[in-house]
Amino acid sequence: MYLREVKLLREKITSPDRYPFNIPSLRSLESLPFRKNVTFFVGENGSGKSTLLEAIAYQCGFHTGGGGRNNYYELASSEAWLGDYIRLSWLPKVNSGFFLRAESFFQFANHIDEVAREDPGVYEAYGGRSLHEQSHGESFLALFRHRFGRSGIYLLDEPEAALSPARQLAFLSILHKLQRKAQLIIATHSPILLGYPEADIYNFDAQPIGLIEYEETEHYRISRRFLENRKFYLKELLD
Question: Which domain holds residue 173?
Answer without folding.
Answer: 3-238
